[in-house]
Every structure is written in C-alpha cells, then in structure tokens.
Amino acid sequence: GLADPIKPTGPAPDPADPTDPAVPTDPNQLNHNFKYLTYLLGKRRRVEAQRMNGATKEVLRRWFDAYKRLKTEQKIENYNTYNIDETGFSIGTMQSIRIIVDSTLRTRFQAYPGRQEWVSAVECICMDRTTIDPLIIFKGQNIL
Predict the structure, then answer these.
(1) What is the distance between the alpha carbons of residues 104 and 110, in angstroms, rounded to a whole number?
(2) Is 36 within 8 Å of 6 (Cβ atoms)?
(3) Better-scored residue on pLDDT, 107 or 55
(4) Of 115, 121, 93, which Cα lies nearest the Cα of 1?
(5) What is the distance between the alpha carbons of residues 90 and 19, in angstroms, rounded to a whole number?
(6) What is the pLDDT of residues 45-90, one digit of tens each?
(7) Which of 55, 104, 121, 124 has a CA that sits 20 to 30 A from residue 87's CA?
(8) CA atoms of 144 and 141, how far apart (whole Å)
(9) How far apart are CA 68 and CA 128, in angstroms?
C-alpha cells in the first residue's frame, strides 16, 4: 500500500535518545520520509479559522503538559495509547454540473448526480507504532 515505505518494523523510536537504532540515520531514508511528508502536507484539508486561531503555542504547550502529567499519574503505557481517525469519501462518477437556485436564498447547494455512494474509513494506530486493520463502512441495508 501507499504507507508500506514508511510502515514501522519495530518498536517506536525514542526521539530523546540519539543512539536509538530505530531513529533513521540513513540520508536516503530521511529524504524519502521528507518527500512523503511533503506529499501528505500538500493534501491537507482546510481548517476552520476558529480552530486554527485557537491553536496557539501556549495552548498547545499547556495541553501537552497536562497530557504528559495525566499519562504519568495514571501509569498509561505507550502500548495503551491510540489515535483513531475517521474520514469519508465518495465512490462513483461525478461530473461538473450547473445548479439553478433562488439567489435570495442564503443556503448553498451542491448536487452530486450519477452513481455514487459515500464510504467511511476508521483508522487506528497505537503510540508503539502497531496498527489495527482499518474499518471500512459501506452503505448497508441491515445491521448484523
């Protein structure tokens, strides 16, 4: 898959330990990872201005300090720390179209004609770099 070149093969590297063998030191590997990261950043989504403006350095520092404190107090290990992300996408054909609406309406409309359906994907990665297979949710008729 797309992530195969950067898929982990062992324990998570400790960025605080420069002698950790899991931290890549090969310039070619670092260059590849940088190019891949640049590709991902180029595809980033727009973030609401309110969220962006609220993410100040001080707010983020306080959040991470509180997170580290809680993790230490509760003795939460990396292998019990997960990130879960959900995304949706359309499968099918979509064409450019023109829509005629009442210009006095303040609502924006967008039509998606043709044969298509929306699919959701739930992805999960552990802080120790292990992953759980993604959950792909297709349109269905029954819940089993």
Answers:
(1) 16
(2) yes
(3) 55
(4) 121
(5) 45
(6) 555 666 677 778 888 899 899 999 999 999 999 999 999 999 888 7
(7) 55
(8) 10
(9) 16
Please check the confidence at residue 116 and state whether its pLDDT lies above 60: yes
**Among all chains, which residue has been given the structure tokens 């070619």?**
28
Return the structure tokens found at 5.
């070149």
- Edge-first strand order for the sheet with 131-137 is 82-92, 116-126, 131-137
Sole residue written with tokens 């997960």? 82
Query: What's the Rg (C-alpha) of the chain?
Result: 21
Helix, strand or coil for residue 40? Answer: helix
Query: Quick one: pLDDT at residue 2?
Result: 44
Among 34, 36, 10, residue whose Cα is nearest residue 23: 10
DSSP state of 60: H
**Interatomic CA distance for residues 113 and 67, integer angstroms:** 45
Residue with tokens 């019990």: 80
One-letter amino acid identity for 128? D
